Amino acid sequence: MAENYLTLNPAAAIDSTMEALDADKVVLVTDRNVHKIVLPLLADSKIVNSSPTIAITPGEEGKNLETVTEIWDKLEESGATRRSVVLNIGGGVVTDIGGFAASAYKRGLRTVNFPTTLLGAVDAATGGKTGINFRGLKNEIGAFHMPSKVIISATPFKSLSREELLSGYAEMIKTALFSDKEFYLHLYDLDNVVDDMPKLGKAVEKCVCIKDDVVAQDPNEKGLRKVLNLGHTAGHAFESLRMGEGNPVTHGKAVAHGILVALLLSHIKLGFESYELDQYRRFLKAYYGTSLMRCEDMEKVVNKMNSDKKNRTYGEPAFTLLQEIGEPEINCIPTQSEMKEALELYIDMTS
Predict the structure, then answer these.
(1) How confident is the model at residue 4 (pLDDT cuts 50, 70, 90)?
(2) How confident is the model at residue 207 (pLDDT cuts 50, 70, 90)?
(3) How many CA atoms lie within 13 A of 289 on its CB side?
(4) pTM (two decimals)
(5) Edge-to-edge strands of the sheet including 26-31?
(6) What is the DSSP string of 3-64?
(7) Beta carbons of 21 and 111 less than 8 angstroms apart
(8) Of residues 46 and 136, which shows the higher confidence score?
(9) Is 160 helix (H, G, I), strand (E, B) or coil?
(10) Residues 316-344 as b or e (16 or more Cβ within 10 Å = b)
């Protein structure tokens, strides 16, 4: 059974974690929004109050090598050593970029992640994937660098916008789809879960424990861990497309739409039930809106999927698909015509 990540007293949890790690120095990485909104909620933490802090530019536009260099500069001027710990307090951008900077500095510093978004809690903060964007491609440069500890609290979730909650919820839906049909049907009633913080907290805990068990069996994504990529091949393509157009969407929204493409391919290649497919389509349109691409974007999206970083060979995207809910199939390689068919159906179903 995975450890219990949730805490009702995050400030105390941060301090006790650092004491247990025996860090000679803690350097705090956050972003400007979190610094203003969330750090005051951790005012009782001695570590948060006393540590050298760098607040980076919020959002994907700052997830680049220039920001990594700023973090390295802060570590250098703070006198960080291999006994030091990087404390990442923020959403997925912060834990991704802070973890990547820590993975390379002095060939690797320990990290502790405190995710402040629902998306970060169920996705980026756990599992050890770190990285930055490069030439318009999501997380193209990165490393596996497992955090020493992940501390999760529902406290910062109360400050999230509806859009941010939906972004994280998409990753929860993804987790349920590949693991547990009963859990998926529970999450399908989104409003009932999101509007009840204790219920949301329990669902987050279940998602994190599922991911933790998968990662423990396959930390470097050689096999089983690929189930976590459900919806991400098309999702990252949508995300990159919209970012390149200057009209970005949240990671979770892109993944939510990418899941529909994956389910369409599951139907085409594995006989995934059309009823389940239509049920998800209704959920998607109700909460995540209409299509993220147009017919004229077809070649761009296909090319982005062909160059996805998870591919072993260019032009052969390795999708995670579903035989049925709770029964994933990894390393499914559709033909180019199957991908285009799925994207055409996706546009028709979401327009």
Answers:
(1) low
(2) very high
(3) 12
(4) 0.87
(5) 53-56, 26-31, 85-90, 110-115, 149-150
(6) ---B-S-HHHHHHHHHHHHT-S-EEEEEEHHHHHHTGGGGTT-HHHHHS-EEEEPPSGGG-S
(7) no
(8) 46
(9) coil
(10) ebbbbbbeebeebbbebebeeebbeebbe
